[in-house]
Amino acid sequence: MYHSTLPPELEKHYIYTPDGGHSINCLLAEHASEAFATHSVREHLVPCPVRAVLRAGYSVQRGYVVVDLLYDTDLGLMTESEDDEY
Asked: For residue 48, what are the CA distances in angstroms to 3, 6, 38, 61, 72?
C-alpha cells in the first residue's frame, strides 16, 4: 500500500516490487500504438516509480496508464534517483 492517496486510476495499477519499490504498472507512450494494435499490452507493461508517473504526467487509454518516460534497452527505465521509494 502506498503511503499517500493515489488517484483512483493509478491505485488499481499500483504494485510494490522488491527491486523497484512503489510503482505503477504502465505502458510507455512510445510502445502504446504497437501494443494496442497487436493486443500485446500486458507484454509491454513496465513498473514505473510512483513519483516518476506523477511528475511526468500520464493518461489512461483503454484502461491502462500510459506515461511518457524514456526506456533504455541497456539501462532500463530512465528516471530521477529521487523518484525511487522503498
From this structure: 16, 14, 22, 17, 13
